[in-house]
Amino acid sequence: MGKHQGSVVVVTGGAGHIGRAICGAFLREGAQVVACGRSTPAEPIASEGREAVFYPCDLRDPEQSKGLIDFVIDQYGTLDVLINNAGGSPPVDAATASPRLTEKIIALNLTAPLVLAQQAYAALAQGDAPGSIVNIASVSGARPSPGTAAYGAAKAGLLSSTKSLAMEWGPEIRVNAIIVGLVHNDAGVEHYGGAEGFQRVAEMLPLQRMADPEDIANAVLLLNSQYASYISGATLEVDGGGEVPVFLHLAKAAAEAK
């Protein structure tokens, strides 16, 4: 039997790179996984012969997010774990971003996970063991985020709400966050100017590589394991050691040029 045999887990943004890895990790541990997203994926979200149930919804609409929680309770009668993974933002210049786009970015990355957590509260709090919420945040919420200012502000708010909810909802529910660093995916290679640019960025990190989605999934499992039973209100940085300040690279380049 897996460590999460019989657990019911909701993963938002379950069809994306990180979302699929999180779903797969819980499926391998025996959980019943419900993934959600705006569009039903072309390929099932599955791992080792087990498949997640997919519930299509736009989490920015509170009625649709409530429908997700109602569906889970109707189908399984309980909810043990909520992973607020859905999020993201296109690159956007702060001086020219429309108010509507800014609202959409904040709604997806801050308002939606907060509202969904509120809607899931009663179900998560009713079990014998504490329920668990893990918010997938970003380094953009912990340092300047030029080019994605609204996204960074929303993720900073998500980190703040993580600590607030942990205080309000303990001991019935543990609430934690993961600060995700740079993650390896095909879109990222293009974003960093091709394979060479991508590799140069990866080598700037202390661990000399970007994260794989499975690295984030493993951190999620850790925060939902018996080893994390006294962890709540915490932020776990999964960033390969952090981004080295640019001034150090400039100083090194100047020294090498002498």
Can you put this structure into words, describing what you see?
By secondary structure, the protein is of the alpha/beta class. The chain is built from eight helices and nine strands. It is globular, with a radius of gyration of 19 Å. The N and C termini lie far apart (62 Å). The model has no long low-confidence stretch (mean pLDDT 92).
Radius of gyration: 19 Å
CATH architecture: 3-Layer(aba) Sandwich
Approximate helicity band: 40-55%
DSSP helix count? 8
Biggest sheet strand order reads 5-2-1-6-7-8-9
User: What count of domains describes the coordinates?
Assistant: 1
Q: How far from one another are the termini? A: 62 Å
Quick one: biggest sheet? 7 strands, parallel
Estimated share of beta-strand residues = 15-25%
- Give the mean pLDDT: 92
Number of strands: 9
**Which structural category do the helix and sheet elements fall into?**
alpha/beta
- N-to-C series of helices and strands: EHEEEEHEHEHEHHHEH
The CATH top-level class label: Alpha Beta
Brief summary:
The chain is α/β, with parallel strands linked by helices and 258 residues long. Helix content is 44%, strand content 17%.
Topology:
Layout: E1 8-12, H1 17-28, E2 32-37, E3 46-47, E4 50-51, E5 53-56, H2 62-76, E6 81-84, H3 99-125, E7 131-138, H4 149-169, E8 173-180, H5 186-191, H6 195-203, H7 213-223, E9 235-238, H8 246-257
Parallel strand pairs: 1-2, 1-6, 2-5, 6-7, 7-8, 8-9
Antiparallel strand pairs: 3-4
Helix pairs in contact: 1-7, 2-3, 3-4
